[in-house]
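Q: What would this chain look like folded?
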Amino acid sequence: MAMFETRISFRFFVNQYLLGAVLSTTLSRLASHSSEPPSTTDPLAQKAQEWFDEGLELWNKGDIEGALDAYEKSVWTRATGDGYYNIASCQYSLGKHESAIKSWKKSLELSPNRADAHVNIANLTALVLKDADGAVTHYEQALKIEPDDGEIRYNFGVVLDSMGRLEDAAKQYQKAVDLGVTVAEKNLRNAVARIRAKEAEVAASETPTNEKKD
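A: My prediction, written as structure tokens:
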């Protein structure tokens, strides 16, 4: 069960069109959630909380390396989902993408109902590891937890689009639009246009030669 009250939360839009090398939009914020308060009698829990609090303070001062060190000491003292989540966020900030993926996965082992961790793993799996199938798995898990999150729908649509799964992508774009993600509107129009063009191409190829001449 989660132990601390504040974690650093990352959410990214993947590249708007296909999976490029950069993240088009990165949202960094502090997120609060309900969690079990640290024990007042367990000295290890108290020490882990102290390291966690120091990590947050260093993060807020822009000392990402220092924050990472403090969060690592926190989880070495007492492992928590929040601690590993924040380690991953620091690693991502420092460009250690594969390490961040591993830490977010560790966070999920301890706190499985964390949609943000699935989303971040999915985005980096698609962008860095170039593994669209692996990304799809984590988007699906995220949507089981947060089915009405338009950003997840949008990102899922982009990855499906890159895989050539246009109909599935269009469904996710439409749901994203319905949930207020306006950036998905252009993607939806483009996907629908390509679906119609593909249908027209198939229909033309099935038209008998004599009908084409007439």
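Confidence is low (pLDDT under 50) at residues 1-9, 13-36.
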